[in-house]
Every structure is written in C-alpha cells, then in structure tokens.
Design goal:
2 copies of one chain form a homodimer. Chain A is built from 17 helices and 14 strands. Chain A is an alpha/beta fold. Chains A, B: Pathway: Amino-acid degradation; L-alanine degradation via transaminase pathway; pyruvate from L-alanine: step 1/1.
Chain lengths: 495, 495
C-alpha cells in the first residue's frame, strides 16, 4: 500500500522499491562464487589494510577463476594485438611484431570507421566470426563450421543467459525444466531462479571421478516430467567445479539421450584448453555429435560456449566469448539476433581478444616462439598445480579429492563431524559454510562452500582454485591441512 | 506435443525450440534501431558489394548513434590511456604522455594482479567509482556524490535493464507499469516487453519542442492506474530521438510528480555532453533534486545513467557506462549487487574509458591542448550539423523539424499523403516504414521510421542521425529533400 499524498508533513516516506516490492525472481537468485563468504573476505581484507591484526597477514582469494588476479601473466601477443587495435598509431612502432599488426589490421578493417569504438553487428565482427569457424573446423578435424552460426558474446555467461531466455517459458506444470549437473557452476541456478524456470538436478558420480551416469540422467528426467517440462540439458565439460573431463562415450550417451527426449543441449566448454590429466582429452560435443552420424548431427539442437576468461590467456576482464549454434530453427535464430540487437553488441576489445585466441601465432610465424613458450608455461604450471593440489589434499585425513583432470578448481570432499553439522544447523547455516567461514577467519583463505554448487545430501565440499602461484598454493594447502586436522579434533570431542 | 520416441525411422524430427515454444516475451520484443529496415539496408550493401547496381553507389547508414562508424575520430588521450592499460610495456615508451601513464597506472593499481584481464569487483574498479563520484560532484557544483552509489555498467543499456529487472514484478492488474516518453529510445519498450511489464506512455509535446508537459504525466498516470501499478518513470534528457534538452523547471515538475506518486525515477543522461542550442543547458536530475531541498533529495529514489558511447568520445564499442543510485533501500542495494555479481563485472576496457571521460586532461596538464582541440572539434561539428539538419529539413515542403537542441538525432515530422497511408495499410506496414523503405531503395539512405520510437496517432516521423561528415550530411539532406518532394507528388495524384 502506498499513499499517494505527499509527505511534507514530516512523516517518513515509504520507499517504492523495497524487499517486499522487489522482483521476487531477483530475491531468489544466489551466486555463491561472489556470495556471503567472499563479502566476508573483503571485510577482513579492509580490516587488515586499516591495520587490524589477524592470525594471518593476507587473505588468499581462492574463490574465483581469475588467473591474472593470482599473478598469471597475459599472453604478450594477445595484448599486442588488442593494443594495436586500441591505438592504431602503434602500427608505426617497430616494437610491435608484423604478425600482430597484420591481425590488428584485419580486425580493424572489419570495424565501422576502422575503429574499436564502433558498435559491431550484433552477432559480432564478421571476420572474427569467420576466424572462429575456421578454428572450430581445425579443432574438430574437419567437421564443418558455418560462421553464420557463430555469435560473439560478453563472456560465456552472457551467451548462456541469452539462450536460456529463449528456452524458458510456461507456467505451473508446463514450466521449462532445465537439467543441470550437481555440482554445477552457479550461473545456471541463478539464471534458472531469475527466469522462474525449474531446476532439474542430475547428480554427477563422485565415486567415479565425477563422471556423468546415463542412468542418473534418465532418473532425473523421469522424476522431473511429473511437475515440469524438461526441455534443455546443460553440461559443463571440462567440469566446474569438479574438473572432470568427460569421455567420448559419455558425451555420446548424453547426446543420444538428448536426441531421444528432444532436449536442447547447452555445452559449456570454456575450459576446453585446460586439460591436464595425460589420460584425458577434450572432445567437443559438436564433434562427437558429428561422429554419431547425420541423423543426429542434422537434428540435435546444440549450443556450445567458449570464453576468453579461461584457457591459457585468462582474460576475464575483457568479457569475451562466443557460442556456436547448431540446428537452431531459422525463425528462432532471427529471434535470437533480435534479442542480441537490443544490447547492440559485445565489447570490441573482447571480440579482438577472442580473435587472437582462435587465430594465434602459427609455427611458421616469428612470434610463435615466445607465444608457445608463454602458453606452455601457463598450462604447465596449471597441470603441476592440479596434481599438487590433488596430492596434498588426499593426504589429509578426512579430505578426499578426486583427480583434477581439467578446468581450474579442486572440489574436495570434506568430512565434517556431526557436532559441527549440528552447530551449523543451530546457526541456520550450511555445515560447509560454517567450515569455510572458520577457515577464512583462522587462515585468511577464502574458498567457496560446496553448498553453493550443489552436492548430494549429507556430503560436504568446498571449491578452491588452483590459480595461486606454486609457492602460495603450497602454503595454502598446508594451512588447509592444518586447519582441517584441528577442526576434526575440535568437533570430535577428542580434546 | 513432442514424441519421446527416437526418429531413426526417417520421419522428420520436430525441433524442441520453435516459434511456438519460444519464450513469448522474446517474441514480443522489437528494436527498430537494428530492425527490419536496417536488415534491408545490409542486404542492399551486400548487393552493391557483389557488383549489383542501384540508383546510388553507397548506403548511408543514418540509423544508429555510432559516431566512429560515420568517420568521427577517437579522442587521442583516451585511446592512449586504454592502450597503456592493455599493454603496460608501453609505459617505457617516450611516445606516450606522462599524463596518460599516470592515469593508466592508477587504473591498473586498482585491478587484480594489476591487469585489465582480471575481473573487477562487480560494481566496478573502486578508484574508477571514486573518480566518477568526483566528476559528478564537480559537474553538479558541489552536490555530494558517494562512490558507493556508483556502479559501472556494460554500456548504459545494461544498467537500465538491470534496474528495470529489480522493479518489474506482479501479475495482471498488479503488474508494474513503466512510464516512458513517446517518442522513446526503443530499449525501454523492448525491456518492458521482455519483462512482461506494462508500457505506460506519456506523450512529449511536439508543438512545444518536444517538452514534457506535467499535465500529460498526470493524465498518463491516472489512466494507467486502472490496469496496472505504475511504479517507475523513465526520462531521457537530452532526448532520444527528439533531441530536446529539458528546462530546469520541467525537471523539477517531473521530480515533484514522482515524489507525489511514489515513483522510482530513471534518468537516462547519456547525451549530457551533447548540448548544442545556446539557450539550452544540461541540468542533471540529481542536481535539480538537490536544489528542491532535503525532503525531496533524501527521499526520491533516482538512478541516473551515463555512457562512453555518446558525448564527444563516441566509444560505443567499449561498452562502457555507469549509473548513480540515489536513495535506494539498502536491502535492495544488496540485491542489486547480488544480481550484478552473476555477470561478474563490466568490461575493464570500458571501465578504463569511462575513467578517462570523468578524469580528462586538465588545463594545467600538457595533454590538455590537444585534448581540448579534439573535443571542441567534435562538439563544434555536431552543433553545426544539428543546425544544418534542422534548417535544410524545415525548408522542405511537408517536413517539419523541431530544433535539434542536443543528442545526435533529428526526428522530423513528415507529411505522408493519404494515398500512401492506404497503400501502406494494404501492405500491412506502418506508413512511415513504407516511406523509409522507399527512401532506402531510391537513395540508399537508411533512417528509422518514427513508428519504431512511438508517435501520436496519425503523425509520422523518421529518426536520422546527424553523424555523417558535413559533406555527406549535405548530400544526404539534399537527397531526402528531393525524395520527399517526389514522394508527395507521386501520392497526391498531381501527375
């Protein structure tokens, strides 16, 4: 109720926009990666900056997949190309390699007024879309890619939300069900909340390296059909937070399932360049679909996502990404382009960064040597840190960590004693949140509780990144170990 | 109805996502600025590129407020700062001024790992938020601005949609009504469609230079209350497409109205640096609110928007912008930050560009001279083109153009003979769409029909930008004149 009379009588005027009147879908949204524990970590950081004392001298932010923030260096060639695009006067500088200038010229020629400051067409700069298609064809060993199916996006998150927005409709029992892996990257649950869709969980198999089990997909789908209309399945491969790299067989099973049940497939492949385990390999959903034959390849509706934020470039701040759209109804595609046009276009610097990623220095180019060195160094370090993290965590009593086959995270299972579980419940919080808050307060290490990603009832986890420098990571893991042992002691009554 | 059986029997498999199953809110969205006529212009461009012949040699795209695409040059200093941020190795280059290096260093110090490739905090880099607050205080001659009320956005469009998303809720007669000016920039109608809110039109007064009439606001509000819950009023000042710059008195009346009716105010001020008429001045909604006294300044909920895309920098492709949030309920603010966090952060290059705009070279700095020259040149040219456009169009029989007081567009009223109106109706299109299509086909000039922005029934307009070079603009206006005269002849039966 709002009075329409003025309030110059001195009474307190009610605000129009309050928690009560706020869009309820917004209230429902949660995003743990930047949620309460990260806010707390920020408060502690400020406290330390202002001279406060804690049992530690710095907060280690291992909550977010931001490589540069943890000291990873940008790829020189990428920054040279983007700098040339930003300030073309640099084309006259002898300090910039010809390889970079050539690419920058190509990009700028595709821009209005040859400027990064022009809007591009809403799907992105045409020559960049073509470069991406060429990259996909080469990555997938010849599977054809049509540049008109490629859309540049403002990070992968933007593309994922746009596609979900097309798919989600209906009320009550006809509401769109969106199948997502548990554990998942909470962009998906946040989007589902905001769009008032139905979240349909399928549980990854922790005892089997977080593999996707087709029987679990069937179970989940059948159960969901009772109360909603499951229409889309989301897969993250390599996985976030789990780090598992799916086998080709598993991907085939998912695609076959999607074909049988007429599900729209969204494959989040932003970690495709982050595969560490020697016995694992990235298989694109598109390539596997192709190899299943034309009846599948010409019918399953699939959108695959990539980003500039991960891989070996770690360019999160550029907000670059693309999606490739397979077998989308042409009328729906026109609607997609219309929806994209309202936001005009993705940031041009991010589009340029994406172009360099799909069109990097080749062996015959002068810039290849340094590029290859930098790329190998980053990926080698990540692989080393993946292995180290798994090893150290598995040596801690009460922690079990599946192999970090890919991506940028470890998602170890932590044993939380019943006394701690009860204390958490009494405090109205999730047990792994209590754990992570205590870890933060005692060691300064910020990780995200597994409850923020989803997990089987009665199990607890946390997600940490493997991004800190090797030295810092060792320190971090040592502190986690000591904390966990202490935590177990404290709550098992063995004092 | 979807069969759950496989279709390996050779029958055509139905797609999951079709126009029928698509989110109906997406279907409802229209965005004329990149709509059907622009698509047609693109087709003609490709036809010309492939060697086809038309009565003209090039398409002139006067449909979108993209300055660089029409030949405007970037501000050198801005590009220097962003290039330095992108490739900090350039800090060692003597070709870059110290003023630019200082700003770049400041920005990078505010970035994770001192890299533009890190995510920033979701509201934006702290020092940039502070710089924006300082700019606002200086612009508004001392009215205090709190940096914690400033949020960087991915262009203004992103901020506008985010705020609307907070505000829009309810079903049936409790649906949120959003008051928007007619004519309007169709981001607003698109957002309202997509969010299933109710569009509440208030008509600007064409006979009075497109001024806002408070009586019309009252009329519109009272009529809307019958079928929805009007909760927010959007104002664009300087106006798009109208180019009117609102008087201080008018802004006061709007704010008083919002206070009385408990409306949330959204003021789109992206053209605040584009004021040409010597008798006009930009008054920020915030400053006017402040001058109305504490009972208003401490209670009216107001969000003001700015962008890097317009002004004198024209950096559309960077997708930079900010919003300042006044008197927002603190619990709602926390919800806003949560919503922003799902998209992580706005692009860092855009944030850096915004920083330069609010923290440009000062008179005592070496770089001031060239900066001031470039800025004056751009704004002087725009002012000249505004005047020229108004003058030439007003000299055409059957065209009446209000003064282009600000922004980047002319929105002339065009007389369309009844015969043409009938022909358009028979073809199932708006009369001004027919007009603009004919204009495009005969002259290659692409402008946007007034029906895409909204107009009083029975009136017709088109929106053109004043961005082409002065020479091209003269050619364009001459062709429009000749076309219009011919069009009048053709449809008035005087052959």
């Amino acid at each position: 109720f709002r009075s329409s009379a003025g309030r110059l009588d001195g009474k307190l005027r009610e605000k129009t926009l309050t928690l009560d009147t706020l869009n309820p879908q917004v209230k429902a949204v949660e995003y743990a990666v930047r949620g309460p524990i990260v806010i707390k970590a920020g408060e502690i950081e400020r406290y330390l900056e202002e001279g406060g004392t804690k049992p530690f001298s710095e907060v280690i932010k291992a909550n977010i997949g931001d490589a540069h923030a943890m000291g990873q260096k940008p790829i020189t060639f990428l920054r040279q190309v983007v700098a040339l695009c930003t300030f073309p006067e640099l084309m006259d500088s002898p300090s910039f390699p010809e390889d970079a200038k050539r690419r920058a010229r190509r990009i700028l020629q595709g821009c209005g007024g040859h400027s990064l400051g022009s809007y591009s067409a809403s799907p992105g700069v045409e020559c960049i879309r073509k470069d991406i298609a060429a990259y996909i064809e080469q990555r997938d060993e010849g599977v054809p890619s049509d540049w008109e199916n490629i859309y540049l996006t403002t990070g992968a998150s933007d593309g994922i939300m746009t596609i979900l927005r097309l798919l989600v409709s209906g009320k009550d029992s006809s509401r769109t069900g969106v199948m997502i892996p548990i554990p998942q990257y909470p962009l998906y649950s946040a989007a589902i909340s905001e769009m008032d869709a139905v979240q349909v969980n399928y549980y990854l198999d922790e005892d089997n390296c977080w593999a996707l089990d087709i029987n679990e997909l069937h179970r989940s789908y059948q159960a969901a059909k009772q109360h909603c209309q499951p229409r889309v399945i989301c897969i993250i491969n390599p996985g976030n937070p789990t780090g598992q790299v799916q086998s080709k067989k598993c991907i085939e099973e998912v695609l076959h399932f999607a074909y049988e049940e007429n599900l729209f497939v969204m494959s989040d492949e932003v970690y495709q360049d982050n595969v560490y385990a020697p016995d694992c390999q990235f298989h694109s959903f598109k390539k596997v679909l192709y190899e299943m034959g034309p009846e599948y390849f010409n019918s399953v509706e699939l959108v695959s996502f990539h980003s500039t934020s991960k891989g070996y470039t770690g360019e999160c701040g550029f907000r670059g990404g693309y999606m490739e759209v397979i077998n989308m109804d042409p009328e729906v595609k026109a609607q997609l382009v219309k929806l994209l046009s309202v936001r005009l276009c993705p940031p041009l610097a991010g589009q340029a960064a994406m172009d360099v990623i799909v069109n990097p220095p080749q062996p015959e180019e002068h810039t290849f040597k340094q590029f290859h060195q930098e790329k190998s160094s980053v990926l080698g370090a990540l692989a080393e840190k993946a292995k180290l993290t798994e090893k150290i965590l598995n040596a801690v009593p009460g922690i079990k960590c599946n192999p970090v086959q890919g991506a940028m995270y470890a998602f170890p299972r932590i044993f939380i004693p019943p006394k701690a579980v009860e204390e958490a419940k009494a405090l109205g919080m999730q047990p792994d949140m209590l754990y992570c808050l205590r870890l933060l307060e005692e060691t300064g290490i910020c990780v995200v509780p597994g409850s923020g990603f989803g997990q089987k009832d009665g199990t607890y986890h946390f997600r940490m990144t493997i991004l800190p420098s090797i030295e810092k990571l060792k320190v971090l893991l040592g502190k986690v170990r000591d904390f966990h042992i202490g935590f177990l002691k404290e709550y098992s009554g063995l004092e």
